[in-house]
Amino acid sequence: MKTVTDGLVIKEMSIGEADKLITILTKDDGIVKAYASGVKSIKSKRSVGTTLLSYSNFSFSQKGNNLRVSEATPIKHFFSVDSDIEAFAISQYFCELCAVFEPHEKASSEFLRLILNSLHFLNEKSKSPFLIKAITELRIAAISGYCPNLVACEACGAYESDVMYFNYRDGSVFCKDCNKDGENIPLGITLLKAMRHIVYSPFERLYSFSVPDEAARALSKITERYITYQTERNFKTLEFLHTIYPENG
Ligand SMILES: [Zn+2]
Question: Where do the domains of the chain lie, and which CATH numbers do they carry?
Answer without folding.
Answer: 4-77 (2.40.50.140), 85-248 (1.20.1440.120)
